[in-house]
Design goal:
Elements lengths: L19 E5 L5 E6 L3 E6 L7 H13 L4 E5 L8 H4 L4 H9 L6 E4 L9 H9 L16 H6 L6 H15 L2
Parallel strand pairs: 1-4, 4-5
Antiparallel strand pairs: 2-3
Helix pairs in contact: 1-3, 3-4, 4-6
Length: 171
């Protein structure tokens, strides 16, 4: 399984470019998530994270091939590395990727609000190439519905994290 996957040069944000590539941060595994009326859907989730050194090496190879933009993708990118040692490692990975010569933009998709620690916000704010773009899938604003959907977090967490992000990037 190659974890830095080319998608025909297409950026997640649309358009065609030979200088954009996606970075998949997950291997195949299954999780069950509830939706509304009791139905359940099987999802792909981050089960065995790819080693940071392997990701950095592949990103360096992509940069050497002329790739300028990386988009980090996982079912829950904010929990990168958690399955290995119950620690979040996304900030460390981002710092390593930010230092790669030739990469101009790094975009992160699927940051769940309950797993966006202050150090991740700081890493993004202080970086040279990580776009201050927070793709946060807000599933619902009701704690009751979030529980029924088998989702982590709460309404208050969503509001608090959004306020923290806005304050951190307010110029």
């Amino acid at each position: 399984h190659n974890f830095l996957q080319s998608v025909g040069g297409r950026s997640v944000m649309g358009g065609h470019s030979d200088s954009a590539d996606n970075v998949a941060l997950q291997s195949d595994a299954t999780s069950v998530t509830g939706y509304g009326g009791g139905g359940y859907i099987s999802e792909q989730v981050n089960a065995v994270p790819t080693d940071i050194e392997d990701l950095v090496k592949e990103a360096e190879e992509l940069a050497a091939q002329g790739v300028k933009e990386l988009t980090l993708i996982a079912q829950d990118t904010s929990r990168y590395g958690y399955d290995t040692d119950r620690q979040l490692h996304l900030s460390h990975l981002l710092k390593r990727l930010d230092a790669i010569e030739g990469i101009r933009w790094i975009r992160i998709l699927y940051l769940y609000p309950d797993e966006i620690p202050d150090d991740l916000i700081d890493t993004i704010r202080e970086s040279r190439h990580i776009l201050p773009y927070f793709d946060i899938p807000v599933q619902h604003g009701s704690d009751r519905m979030l529980k029924l959907m088998n989702r982590r977090g709460s309404h208050d967490t969503i509001v608090e994290r959004a306020a923290k992000i806005r304050a951190s990037f307010d110029h």
